[in-house]
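Predict structure. Input: Glutaminase, 333 residues.
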Amino acid sequence: MVEPIPQPSGVTQEVATGTLPAWAQVEELVREAHQRYRDHDEGAVADYIPILAETDPRLFGLAVIDRTGGVHDAGDARHPFSVQSISKLFVCALVIEELGHDLVRDRIGVNNTGLAFNSVMAIELNDGHPMNPMVNAGAIATTALMPGETSAEKWEHIRDGLSAFAGRTLRMDGQVYRSEARTNERNKALARLLSSYGRLDEDPLEVVDIYTRQCAITVTAHDLAVMGATLASGGINPVTGDRVVSPEVCRDTLATVASSGLYERSGEWLFEIGLPAKSGVAGGIVAVAPGKGAVGAFSPPLDRAGNSIRSQLAIGHLSRSLGLNLFASAPDS
Ligand code: GLN
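Output follows.
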């Protein structure tokens, strides 16, 4: 096992804060970002899950929710699509909430694989270690850790947990679930491989089934922004006012997603955009600005790593215009 990074003891964690521009200005900038990329048509819609190939590539939604629950929606912000890999972010938070920081670091890991989200090589190169909760192998291992005596109970916990993040009851799209369940041999292979290394305590196929269900949960760009804003607000959903997870869980989850949320492109993403973010193959991306709020974006055409191109462009634009980049600093003036 890798040596843990030494931690200073007895020092209180101060919170990074800062404010977004005034509501009307944010509204204007969200509209501007949407307009700017509305006609951008690079990329290809995912087709390895057959039903996703039928998605209209022109759909484009953008939403910002600030930490007070202020809403800014543009374009197709309320158009439903499947959450796919973005579920990994929120399931990771729920598992850290249940089992704690150390267990997730040691059992799943928090380092980038440098390889594709569904890589078999990543497992082989790391002695069967799932590496991080944002790639398929690590996400399957994380889903297996959800509380619940049975698969049905684990699934209910996931659906209820993601609903608490969104502030409304989320449902699974049966068509998306069945389309992926018929074709997910690779995820089954990943789970069996983890199992062969003793990294999965549950039945691999049952865990993949729960994972496939969680990926088929329907959300909108607006929902993603509310879900992300909950992580930006120390775990309190800014729309419902309900506590979903603790502030420490938000911190740990955002650190995890910063290093691997956009898979092998996560380093470039941090370099260019400077925000923890998670993508899904249906075209969604959520980016979180701790202490400020979150951006949810949806546009189906993807780059080769499986990240929505227009969502990346629009979030990049907003990161600059709203001053969200975590690494941007200036001297006191
Ligand atoms: N359900 C998809 C899969 O397991 C999710 C992948 C993704 O969104 N990148 O392949």
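The mean pLDDT is 94.
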